[in-house]
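Onboarding guide, step 5: your first structure request.
Type a short instruction followed by the sequence, for example:

Predict the 3D structure of this protein.
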Amino acid sequence: MAMRSLQFRRTHALLGRREVMKCAGAALAGVGAMVMSRASYAGQDLLVMDYTGYEVPDLHRPYIQKYGRSPGFSLFGDDDEAFLKVHSGFRADLIHIGTFSIGRYRDAALIQPWDTSRLKYWPDVFPIFKNAAGIVTDGKQWMIPTDWGINSVLYRTDLVDIKEESWNLLWDKKYAGKLSYGTELYPAIGGAALASGIANPFTANNEEFERIHAKLAEQRPLLRFYWSDPTQLEQAVASGEVVAAWSWSASYSTLKSQGVPVKYMTQPKEGVSSWVSGFVLPKDPPGKLQNIYDYVDAWLSPGSGKWLIEQDGYGQTNEKTFDLVDAKVLASKGLGPPDQILAHSLLNKEMSPSLHDRYIKMYEQVRAGM
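The system replies with structure tokens like these:
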């Protein structure tokens, strides 16, 4: 069963895509991966901290082929939970997080830089991910990016009449009461920034912050609802209750498979908002270092990436993986052609704690009508 085909709910409406994603872990009990506590780790050579649902063997088959079994897993629901656990002394060999969380691990001296020369597939990683702010700091590689996706505008082609694809469709008063916007902080800020012509909202000055604030406040009375559950949004779009919304690419794939006449803006005139996640290396991992690098390489292998794209609907950072996936499949997932999408992409980056907190407070107030 594909991970994203399960019923997802949000654990915190204002955090990033990964931080708010949970799936029914019990449905994955038969996949063969070992989920364990620190106390039961002794017999394992590797313990991976990962989001619930990412322990499936299809994402690390080369590792199993080499070592005869999956590593152990300690699963979490969001990045805050993982950070607090590690900061409290829990020891793992790998941690899978979003780019927006790298800084707090680095600043707390919980992680160390990677030696990319030990990774077979590192030369094949998209340059935009290799060199992204936060992923590389002070010339050091603090994350190995492994998976990515986009957030963009989804619309009903039979109910919306547009001359040019643009984020500003979600501010079009002609469709007042039939628009929807998400509660996740990073793509919400990203969409408003793109619609306002702001290049980097993650280092926004006061003037740019207020423009984003005004843009989100302007949008609020036009919305049917703010969505936090993709199923709620998909049902509203399918019925015509909502004719345009920002959404995950997975929602586009779901609606297309149901025969709903929708289109996903993979190249709106302002570009798309995108995210990337990957692995950070703890300061003193208790397991074997070679196993650590072999596991990350397994994630970066084209076979793992093909499964991730076709079954999960999200991209892998290995550029060559996309040659293995049919162009029609990539289009159906909102992932093709990837080089063109990424060339016009606002990639999520870590921001200062003070700006992050300021955005959270502002977006809470906007949604409350304050």
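Each response can be followed by summary notes, for example: The chain has two domains: 3-148+276-330, 150-273+351-367.
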